[in-house]
What does this fold into?
Amino acid sequence: MLDIKNLNVSVEDKQILRDLSLKVGSGEVHAIMGPNGSGKSTIAHTLAGNPNYEIISGDVNFNEKDLLEMDPSERSLSGLFLAFQYPIELPGVTNASYLKQIVNVHRKHRGENPIEAGDFLKLLKEKSSILNIPMDMHSRFVNAGFSGGEKKKNEVLQLDLLNPNLVIMDETDSGLDVDALKSTSEAVNQLRSSNRSFIIITHYLRLLEYIEPDFVHVFQDGSIVESGDKSLANRIDKEGYA
Amino acid sequence: MNKVNKDNFKQIKYKYGFVTDIESEKIPKGLNEDVVKLISKKKEEPEWMLEWRLKAFERLQHMNPPKWVKAKFDDIDFQDLYYYASPKNFKEKPKSLDEVDPKLLETYEKLGIPLKEQKVLAGVAVDAVFDSVSVATTFKDKLDEIGVIFCPISEAIKKYPELVKKYLGSVIPITDHYYATLNSAVFSDGSFVYIPKGVRCPMELSTYFRINASETGQFERTLIIADEDSYVSYLEGCTAPMRDENQLHAANVELIALKNAEIKYSTVQNWYPGDENGVGGIYNFVTKRGLCKGDNSKISWTQVETGSAITWKYPSCILKGDNSRGEFYSVAITNNFQQADTGTKMIHLGKNTKSRIISKGISAGKSSNTYRGLVNFHRKAKNAKNFTQCDSLLVGDKCSAHTIPLTENSSNDSSIEHEATTSKISDDQLFYVMQRGMTAEDAQGLIVNGFCKEVLQKLPMEFAVEAQKLVNISLEGSIG
It folds into this structure.
């Protein structure tokens, strides 16, 4: 479903990705591990279409489409979801209204009518309870003043509401305490399915203890240097990246 | 879309820019005593009104236009303007809508203000002012029944001279400042509202101002009096054709709230803003002032300012009655080369008076947006309170926002709270929302509407949704 071929990307004229290639099949969970500052997030932002990341060369095929030709909203509507490492604050915009609007944008794209207010509230309650999100969080402004844990949970909530088929999680475990990590991982595990793939970007092993990956890739110097199964993650945890 | 938010400008879609092809009758260009007399004659005014105008005109000879506004423009040649224009053969305001020129009805229909009874907005009475004359007023009979007077001011001068004499110029005297005094000398039409004692006006009253004729200034005058224990909500809207000349709009609006009365005055200002190169557009130099004359009275200004090449206005409250309250809620949006210098004055004279100022300025393109405000506590204003919040939002990096809040305090037990923020719509915010499926423009609209929601919610319900759309349209093209 996702095929990255020889991708070269620069940020502010500095090349970060060098000939990165990766294939992700339907329903697979891939973990990308790498040292801090190695540019792991660049993969996430490039796939999501952040305009600050400049494609030098390479191809990305997503569900038989040229991903790099699409703008960020088209990528989202085609089923790509990025859980941000640093979710962005939207002062003045209440979380509930924001969530409803993004749900409706996707419904519209599928040719469905906007969701009824009552139905949305029901849906929101149901999805929030899975993540232990209190409903009063939704009357606050999007991510503004949220704790690190609240922000990350809000990302997973959006993931759950939008039903994507490719999820990129950028350091979702950072800033989470053990309890939050557990409930977030459980929610993610429930979202695993044969037609939903995950790319999990992380520095630590601990997230992968909760969300078990099918493949583990070691990312270094802008490219994948080693791939394997879960045992690779355990080895890196013991021996480090060097 | 590869880059967002990179100062890429395209033409703003100004959908009200059409010209109505109707012959207009203008009096000769120029500003002199004869012109003042001619306007008064056209309006068939009583002698006292002409004298009042001439007094203002005399005063004007000793005044100069103020220069302190934070906006750049060439001096206005006041002799090169038409001061009165009306549709040709428009002798008297038609008695019924059947007699109104179909072209005029069509104009208002196109503007989204249907005047025909079967189509009118439920719950909103409209006075339609076209250049210098009022062409139609809806729901008149219904308002008559409860004693509410809602008519063109030219009609009020003839029919209710005692009320007009008593209150006209009582809040904005003919000696005030150049543009206000100019208005007193040459004002053409506008609305007059009187709400009798104890009456809660059951419908929104609304005036729709349209400038159509070229090289013509519009000098409307509005006077609203809310008698004791009454309530009224009033809304004005304004548009003009797209022209490459600058047209002057210098209105005076006076509000008087007597004991326990409340006036809510809302403006959705969408005068032609000029094109993307800053050519043309309206100079909106308006004086709006409300007097909370009686105890426990309240005046609330809400304005959504999206149009005009230059907006220069400070809807103000004089809080004379004890326990009276003044409010100012404002959204001012500037794009391309628009310039806005707007805010309010809250003059606290009475005891326990309270005022609240919420100003939201949004600048995009190469525009300049200034909040200027004055909070004044007189020494007798015991226990007076003010809360001011000024927020600025920048879109792109070629625009500017300025905040100039002034405080003058002669009372020793009053309190002032002031909060101000400046923020920018960031590429990160747009990217985040677009990653959830919204287009760049919708993402921007979401953020902007979140920013000014607090003010838009103050508008009468029928107009809040329209205003929200207008906010988005005004910023179209500000992201590439």
